[in-house]
Amino acid sequence: MNKKSTAASAILGGVLIFAVKLYAWWISGSVALLSDALESVVNIIASVMMFASVLISEKPPDEDHMYGHQKIENISCFIEGFLVMVAGLLIAWAAYGRLMNPVELVELNIAVFISLFATSLNGVLSWLLMRTADKTGSLALEGDAKHLLSDVISSVGVIIGLFIGEQLGIPVIDPLMAMIVAALVLRMGVGLVLKSGGGLMDESCADSETEIKRIMDMHHQSFVDYHNLKTRKSGEKVFAELHLSLDGGLSVQEAHEFTDHLEDDVRNELPNVSLTIHIEPEKNNRD
User: Fold this and answer.
1) I want to staple 181 with a disulfide (CB 3.0 to 4.6 A). Which of 3, 25, 26, 154 is the partner?
2) What fold, for 3-200?
3) What is the CA radius of gyration of the chain?
4) Which residues contact 49 (CB under 8 A, 6 or more apart)?
């Protein structure tokens, strides 16, 4: 599946999962299961934003956006992170209210079975999103995949807590587990904000720099040196530049052909990297 179809599937799957989790809460009265349903609302909103960002990111460069539109994926992920943090606070607030006024759970076994079904659907969606993200390098898809995976992990924790609460006959276990879920959700939201913010702040791409250096070192006999390697990421695209010191006796044509060869090598091995090389004669070499 491509990015657009995968993003659309995430929206449809999110609506189905929300309905299932809401039903599980309705028949059980569990605030922990309600917390799962509330997070699913955030999942749906995030998936809609992700779908919109994917559509915009695939637009070709224009006069107003010479480097393309892919940074919209960073913005989408950044907003999603804040929404996740808000969901975590809402879950914590609901859990606190139930902690002050514990309620006996009913129909727990059926509710947990339904919640497990919804959790398995989330797991499938997460796997689908991550697989497509790995193929395309999409930050928006990766962020949503990790969001859903975190939801799966927290849901399993909640279900374990519900079973413990039922076996011990202690209703307070339910809101305590919801508090743990809230902490996990908040941690996830902070992580998404930090990761997407790194791209918005043009954080360097260490992995891409390592690969570029490896390719350049394969041609080290053909130039004097290279320096001032810089990278930044916009969506799935990495923009890189470096200064290349060449023998001052080379003609402009020879220097141009050599840099084209280097850029082609990088492009062939790293399709998501756009490398720009600035040529310098040996006498202008700078440390």
Assistant:
1) 154
2) Alpha-lytic protease prodomain-like (1.20.1510)
3) 25
4) 76, 79, 80
Q: 206-284 in CATH: which number?
A: 3.30.70.1350
DSSP-assigned letters across all residues of the chain: --HHHHHHHHHHHHHHHHHHHHHHHHHH--HHHHHHHHHHHHHHHHHHHHHHHHHHHTSPP-SS-TT-STTHHHHHHHHHHHHHHHHHHHHHHHHHHHHHS-----SHHHHHHHHHHHHHHHHHHHHHHHHHHHHH--HHHHHHHHHHHHHHHHHHHHHHHHHHHHHHT-TTHHHHHHHHHHHHHHHHHHHHHHHHHHHHTT---HHHHHHHHHHHHTTGGGSSEEEEEEEEEETTEEEEEEEEEE-TTS-HHHHHHHHHHHHHHHHHH-TTEEEEEEEEEGGG---
Q: Which one, of 111, 80, 92, lies nearest residue 180 by Cα?
A: 92
| Ranges of each domain in the chain | 3-200, 206-284
Consecutive 10-residue averages of pLDDT for the chain (287 residues): 85 89 78 71 84 88 85 84 80 79 60 78 90 82 80 71 67 75 83 84 89 91 90 85 89 89 90 90 58
